[in-house]
Amino acid sequence: MPETARYTALVANDLKQANADMSKVLQVDIEAEPAKVQQTAGSPSSSYGLLSKEFLTRHGLHLLGTTSTWFLLDIAFYSQNLFQKDIFSAIGWIPAAKTMNSINEVFTIAKAQTLIALCSTVPGYWFTVALIDRMGRFAIQLVGFTMMTAFMFALAFPYDHWTQPGHHIPFVVMYSLTFFFANFGPNATTFVVPAEIFPARFRSTCHGISAASGKLGAMVGAFGFLYLAQSPDKAKTDAGYQPGIGVKNSLIVLGAVNFLGLLFTFLVPESKGKSLEEMSGEIGDMKEGGEELDHPASYNNRTVR
């Protein structure tokens, strides 16, 4: 399997090989223009390294945006996912674990989580697939974090109200909507955007850094919420745990995390309708390096420019 033509042309600076590879893939004759070969080789985009001063000037804020939003999202998203059963039990939607045998407990939790997935998590992805190229990545991520923040605070501040008998259904609905807007929001866009906004030779590395930041957030969320959500009353904590700040205050913390994600979203550029070279600045670099490039829309199927 050949390397991608974009990498071969822009990173390896071998337009001839890129032409040959694409000729095989597309089964058409592709001719390289000599002037473009020299122009690409002299492009400023191939002269600076990862995390260099030039990289940080061009893409530092973008990398901060992709790493921070993925990190913050996963704190909230994994916390909510892993501890649904504890929250639903606390508000009385499902019975406490001590009132059921192990089989009934697993079955009850599975029913609740399946309902949440079918009504909110999965449809959220469908909405993203349908609208991502209409609304754009930035708008979807911003709306997602905004709604997650709003619903989380709506659950947290009147938490004592939701724990009263007969009030758990509105809580479950709003809790489900946080999952809907996670998937119709940053849980989809945070892994799309890093693959679109960085130069070809840094794209995989920057995406990997962003993803690693997200997994760090997942660990913080999983372990942090486990301890934070413990009751402040030591007599009510789970065996082996120290008193925490309680579910209410933990939900407030998650709301604040989502709000920070909303703010850091403004560091991430919109990539809707733009080529990878436009987003990364590689087209502009090649213009600086020599003759101005034609607009990508004018390319024909027989010439790689």
Automatic annotation (TrEMBL):
Q: Would the keyword Transmembrane helix turn up in this protein's UniProt record?
A: yes
Annotated InterPro entries: MFS_dom, MFS_sugar_transport-like, MFS_trans_sf
Give the catalytic activity.
phosphate(in) + H(+)(in) = phosphate(out) + H(+)(out)
Main localization category: membrane
Q: How does it sit in the membrane?
A: Multi-pass membrane protein
Among Pfam families, the record links this protein to: Sugar_tr
Q: Report the transmembrane regions from the record.
A: 138-159, 171-193, 205-229, 249-269
Report the locations given in the UniProt record. Answer: Membrane
One example GO MF annotation: transmembrane transporter activity
Q: Which UniProt keywords apply?
A: Membrane, Transmembrane, Transmembrane helix
- One CC-aspect GO term: membrane
Does the keyword NADP belong to this entry?
A: no
Where are stretches of biased composition, namely Basic and acidic residues?
284-295
Q: Domain Major facilitator superfamily (MFS) profile spans what residues?
A: 1-273
> What residue spans carry the region label Disordered?
284-305
Annotated family: Belongs to the major facilitator superfamily. Phosphate:H(+) symporter (TC 2.A.1.9) family.
* Protein name from the UniProt record: Major facilitator superfamily (MFS) profile domain-containing protein
* UniProt organism field: Coffea canephora (Robusta coffee)
Could you read off the lineage of the organism from its UniProt record?
Eukaryota, Viridiplantae, Streptophyta, Embryophyta, Tracheophyta
